Every structure is written in structure tokens, then in C-alpha cells.
Amino acid sequence: MLFIDTLLIGLSSGAIYALMALALVLVWRSTRVVNFAQAGQAILSTYLGYEVMNMTHNYWVSIPFAILGGAAIAAFVDGVIMRALVKRSHKGSVSEIAPVIATLGLLGLIRSLTGMIWGNAYLQYTSPLSGKGYMIGQHTIPFSPQNLIIVIGALLVMGVFAAIFKFTNLGLALRAASFQPEISRLAGIRVDRIRTIGWAFAGAAGAVAGALVTPTTYLSPNSLDLLLVSGFVAAVIGGLDSLIGAVLGGLLLGVGFAFILQYIGTSVTFSAAFIILILVLFMRPRGILGSKGGRRDA
Amino acid sequence: MSALEVSNLSINHGAIVAVRKLSFTVEKGQLAAIIGSNGAGKTTLLRALSGLIPASEGTATWKGKSLLGQKPENLVRSGVAHVSEGKSVIPELNVKENLALGGIWRKDKKDVAIATEEVLELFPRLRERLQQSADTLSGGERQMLAIGRALIARPDLLLLDEPSLGLAPLIIEQIFEAVNQLRHRLGLTVLLVEQNAMSALKIADVGIIINVGTLVTSGQSKELLADANLRAAYLGY
Amino acid sequence: MRKSKSLSALTFLAIGLFLLGLSNFVDELRVYQGAQIAVYVIAISSIILLTGYSGQISLGHGALMAIGGYAAVLSYTYWHLPFLLAFTVGALAAALGGFILGMAAARLSGPYLAGTTLALAVGLPSLANQFHILGGEQGLSFDIGEAPKWISNKTGGDFTQYKWFFWVSVVCALATIWFIKNLLQSRFGRTWRAVRGNPSAAALSGINIGRSKVLAFTVSSTLAGLAGALLAMLLGLVAPMAFTLTLSFTLVTGAVLAGVTNLAGSIVGAVVLVGIPEFTDAVATHLGGSEKISANLPGLITSVLLILTVIFMPNGPKLHKRKKVTN
Ligand SMILES: Nc1ncnc2c1ncn2[C@@H]1O[C@H](COP(=O)(O)OP(=O)(O)OP(=O)(O)O)[C@@H](O)[C@H]1O
Ligand SMILES: [Mg+2]
């Protein structure tokens, strides 16, 4: 019983990690930048959802707004700041760490801005669904309706992404542009624009993660920082280049965490993320199903 | 006025001048072979004509419109297709998807379907491998795929960069034959970059010989083939 | 060579005496800020050494500072070491942590290293909550006491604790810069530059790239540990909230502002970082702004500075790189 409970709770957090990992991988594939600002973008879109909910008093209405907001923020970040910088860094006129540092700066910027607007206090972004676990007979399992909606929501996002990537021209262009930008341009694809759309998808995934997970915790300018780390670890487990890998990595990490939490204790989760990351990097340097193009220096 | 006019064109890579004050013209419907040894600046020239890199001086016009300073994705849309050096396919996608890329921006989906069908007729080996990942194709098949994808855009100017690179003579002949057929059938103008001077000049109307970025000579390919001095110095046989 | 070395040692001595003398003529707040600047100089130089000269990125130096801080405080409290020795213990503990991290880092390229060190920065401080001995959220207090009599007597007047902090920090900072300067001119420095400039050529010429990177990481961590111990001294405590992710980011910002390969720039970076809260406080009070604004303005300005520097002066502060030669 305990085993099943732990597994369920792991799936719920794993679904959130998977969404974040998906966001990081989407950007990494097309831009070759780990977007640390992703946590900030997600938190900003969650605050947007929070505002909409305060106005409409309806959690479900607020989610699409958060998603659209997340996509718009991401498109803005790429179009206005990252695009030019990344180009210069690929050309070699700017060091390759410059874009990464810019995303850090953006993370800091968004955190401070949200702090200025909403304060650093913990806010409640509540869902109408109960956070109490389901009852099975006499036993309350630590898996609530909100957890269920997290899993369903995450699966939905992944399904939509998979369908877009596999079956639409946009998806084909997104894949082509991230694998071979130059050949894609020669085929007539407006790679810059497509890349920005990829960022928007990533922003949307991050926004879903934020809007779904926040009702189970609280909302503050840095309440998603940990999620950034977990998402990154999940993405690395999946090989950083693979969308399916990101999803699997997220789920694995979530379940792994749940068991550590259950059997070792809550306080080690943060360090656990770090240790798992190091272990993966040493033992499966390409992730569980990462593609070629190693993560090590040549 | 010729269809393709390149005049006084220079292209730099940083401090290196890869193409220097190059001028030549190609008539509509002609196949022009650009011949030169390694490092002559052939790839550089094509990359500038298709908008991938900027030129530092001179002009290049296609049907009166400048090719320079335009983005490659827009040039394709106005009929200039570039099959870049080294099998310009996307290995992570399968054959069908690679072909689909060729027409991805086109509104006329009916004609995309027709064009795709034509390509598959031209290169039947591709039809048998539609679901196969481009990564697993042989060199020759990849080149066919790359050319096929370019054709689906329905270009009127085709820039081909060393399609023979690394291929067996028999395959080279097949590909050249296909290119030759195409331009007669579709009225394509073709700029064919080759080190393989002999086979290229055989199908070409005109030849343009360059050496370290400058024009050596240009003329009817038959005359070039007959010129003993040229043969010894640049055509390598 | 020898001559220029002793000359530069003299210069350092002169700068040190000048600064220490200066501390007699400014008020307490400035003295304290001076000490902060000195600590930031050490921390920023440690990143410059790592990123600018060895080409590795670290977003986790806040965590290494935490190791240094905690180790120093623990050894001071439980082993009753003299504080300078406690600082050394702090630096060595961070060196050990850095060595282990460096082993991982040497095998990782850009994004992986950035993410791994980020995970460390987020994860490590929270360990304090797990082990009772580390004092949880409240942390542990740390008081190195007043300056010894033989120093305070000589200078006369009232020798405050802040002034004593200032002395200690400035001496450490100058020693650090002097050490790095010499290190960079040594065999190790040349090796790092070779590896950063052209890894494959360096490998071909017989340089062990992995070892050289681990060494850089270890040295850099040692300095970060020292900075952490000094920071604990200034704050009078070690606690998780002193070593947040924000600290790590701030240090990277400082290094970028300094110009990642410009050691002297670390002073500029440190001054800016210490100056920002001062400036924003003034602005916030002037605007009569709310707590929300004043609490977040420093972060906002730091971030904006970071972004603007990366976008507009990637070459001023030397994020510049040789032109990549493709093909
Ligand atoms: N990106 C680049 N940066 C610097 N120099 C370059 C670059 N690309 C090409 N060059 C130089 O420009 C010159 C011409 O190169 P180019 O690739 O155009 O030759 P090519 O005629 O296509 O040769 P090949 O037959 O070997 O393909 C060469 O000296 C080459 O080294
Ligand atoms: Mg070439």
C-alpha cells in the first residue's frame, strides 16, 4: 500500500518535472541554450493566472490565460533578447556563455519584477479541487483530485505536443529548424520565426506546470526555482535533446524523489536532486535515450 | 540581358578573400558548370548567391533582381534553390519528411503533391524508402533526396554544390543524367559546381573556371574541353 | 622577472597600507562597506579565475562559499581554533568540495556544468536544515572578537570591530589578488590559457586537460571558501539565507561586470555590487516607495545590469572570444 501511495505521489510530481523538462528541452534543441529564465517565465505566467482568477473567481478560466501569457512572455524573451545574442554567440563574436548568462539575468529580472508587483509574501492560488487525498476504503491515499488533474493536464500537454510535432507542418518545421537550421532555411523555413514559436511552446509548458502545481503549494517570486532544478535534472536524465526523454526523465525523477522522501526523509530532496544529477552524468552521460552529440568536451 | 548576371563579385571570410572580383553570366535554361579545385571559392560563391553569407562588393542578379542581401528562406520562395555541399538533407527526419520540407511553405498543395510525385518518378529509389530515416540512406540516395527536395519548391534557378562528392562513377552519371533531363523538361537554369570537370562539362552548356577566387576563363563547354592548355592546367586530365 | 615581482609585492603593500590608513578617516558604515567590497573582490576573482582563465562556468559559487562559511564557524566554535586558522579550515573544506565538483565539471561541457552547479547552489544550503549541528534556518552565530591589543594599541583611537573586519578582509583580498596574479603567470596559468584557447591543441601538446580543469576548480573553490568565511565574519553568522541562489547569481554578475578575464575589474564589480543596495535604498526612500519596491530594487538593478552588459558590452568586459573558424 505504502508502495503504491509513494508511486502515485511520485507520478504527480514527476508530471510537473516532465513539463518543466519539456520546456527546457524545447529551447535547448532549437537554441542550444539552457534557459534558466524558464522558472521566471513560468512564475510570471502563474501570477497572471492568479490575477485572472482573482477577477473571475474561476481557476479553470485562469489556466488558459496563464498558458497564453507564458507563450507570449517566452516569444518576447526570444524575439527581443535572445535571438540576436544567440546569433552573435554562434558566430563567435560573443562568448558562448553569454546567452546562458543572459537567461540568468532574465531570471533575476523577472523575480524582482514579480516581487515589486506582488510582494515576496506567499500568496494562495487555489484550485476548486480538493487537495485532500482520495479515500480507498479506510485508507486515505496521498493522491488528491488536484494531483489527478496535474497528471491529466501534463499528459494532455504532452499529447498535444506529440501530435503537433508528428502530424503538422509546423511540427515538421520545428523539428527541421532545430536539427539543421541552415538546411531548413534553404528549404524555405523562416527559422527565426519558427524558433520563437518553439520558445512559445516551451513557455506554455512551463505555464501549465506553474498553474497546476501552485495550488498544492504557494505562490511567491521564487517558488518555482526548485522546479527549475528538478526540470533540468529530468531533462539531463532524458538526454537534454529528446522530448520523450524529458517526459520519461521527469517521471523517473518524480518517482525516485517520492521514494527518497518516503524512506529517507524530506530534508534530503534538494541534495538528492544534485546527487542524482551527478550520478546520471557519470553513468549515463547521454541520458537514458539521448541522441548523439555528447555533453562532454571533445 | 542574361538571366543570371554576376559582376565584380567579391566575398570575404574575415580577412580571407575567397572570391575576388568575379564576373560571369548565364542565359536562361542553360546549365553552367563552375569548375575549380579545392578552396577555389565555389562553395563560397553559391552560399552568397543563395543568401547564406554576405558579399563584400559587386552585384549578382537573377532575372534583373538582386540576389544579394536577401535571406535564403525568401530566395527559395522566389525560385532560387540551393542544394548545399555534402548532401543537404536532414538526417534526423525520414525521407518523406525531408521531401515534405521542400514544399512546406508553398500554398498550392495540389502542385506540391504533383511535384513530389514527379520527384519520386525521377528517383524511384526514394519511393521505396519513404519511411526510412535519411540517416540510413546511401550517399547517392541522399544526394537524390537533396535534389528532390529542392525540386519540390519548383525553382527556376538551381544551385548544385558538388553533387558528385564521394559518389561512385555510376551514381554520378545517374545524377548528372537526371539533372540534365530536368532542365530540358522544366526549363531550369542550373549552376553546377564541380571538381569533376570532365563529367560536368559534358552535360554543361557553358563552363566557368575559377582558381583561388578569380575567374580563369569562361566559355562554351565544348571549346573548354578542346583547349589543351586548360585541360592540362585546370581540368586535371 | 624577479625584480618586477618584488616591485609588485611592494605595490600591494603600499595599497594595503593606504587602505588601512584610509579606514581611520571614514565613518563606520563606509568601513563596513569597504570590508564587504573586499570580500566580494575575493569571491568575484575566484569566478574570474574559473570562467575567464579556465573557461568553466559556475553558478554554484554561493554554495562553495557556504561550505567555507560553515566549516570556518564550526571549527571556530567546536575546536576553538584561532579565527585565521578557522578561515583556513573553511577555505580547505571548500577546496575539497570544489575538487569533487571539479572532477565532475572537468567531464562536463557548458550547459551541463551550468545546470549542475545551479543544482548545487539550490540544494546545498538546505542541508543546514537536516543536520542539527548546522543550526537550521537560524544558523550559527560567529564572532571573531575585537582586534588583538598589539594592533589596536598601535593605531590608537577607538579600534572598532568593523575596522578590524575591514583590516582582515582587505589583507585577505590583497593576498588573494597577489596570489592569483602570480598563479596566472606560472606554469598553471599558461596551461589554463592554452586549454581555454584551443583544447585540442593543448591536448596534443601533452597537457592533461582534465587535471588542469580540476585544479582550476579547486583553486577557485578555495578562494570562494575564504570569501564565505569572511562573509560569515561580516554577518556575524552562517545561515542558509546568507548563501542563496541570489548570492551565486550576484557573483556571476560581478564577474561579468568586471569583465570575465579582467582581474582588476573584480574591484569595480565588487564596488558596483556593494553600491547597488546603497543606491537603491536612496532611490526607494526618495520615492517613498513601498517595502515591495525597496526589497526588490537591488535585484532588479543587478539583473538589468547583467543583461545590458551581456548584450551591449560583451567585449568590453571580456566575454570576447577569438573568431571561431568553421570549415
Ligand atoms: N567559414 C569560413 N571561414 C573562413 N574561411 C573560409 C570559410 N569557408 C571557406 N573559407 C575559405 O575560403 C576559401 C574558399 O573555400 P570554398 O569552400 O568556397 O572552396 P571550394 O571551392 O568550395 O572548395 P571545395 O572544392 O574543397 O569544396 C578556402 O580557402 C577556405 O579555406
Ligand atoms: Mg566546396
Features:
heterotrimer; A: 298 residues; mainly alpha; ABC transporter involved in vitamin B12 uptake, BtuC; two-stranded antiparallel sheet; 11 helices; globular; disordered C terminus; C: 327 residues; 13 helices; 2 strands; binds adenosine-5'-triphosphate; binds magnesium ion
Describe this structure as you would to a colleague.
The complex is a heterotrimer of chains A (about 300), B (about 240) and C (about 325). Chain A is mainly α and about 300 residues long. Chain A has eleven helices and two strands. Chain A has one domain: ABC transporter involved in vitamin B12 uptake, BtuC (Orthogonal Bundle). Chain A is about 70% helix and about 0% strand. Chain A starts with a helix and ends in a 15-residue tail after the last helix. Chain B has a domain of about 160 residues: Rossmann fold. Chain B contains ten helices and ten strands. In chain B, strands 6-7-8-3-9-10 form a six-stranded mixed β-sheet, sandwiched between helices. In chain B, strands 2-1-4-5 form a four-stranded antiparallel β-sheet, with helices on one face. Chain B is globular and about 45 Å long. A two-stranded antiparallel ribbon of chain C has the order 1-2. In chain C, helix 2 runs antiparallel to helix 10 and helix 3 packs antiparallel against helix 4. The radius of gyration of chain C is 20 Å and the shape is globular. The C terminus of chain C is likely disordered. Chains A and C meet through helix 3, helix 4, helix 9 and helix 11 of A and helix 5, helix 11 and helix 13 of C.
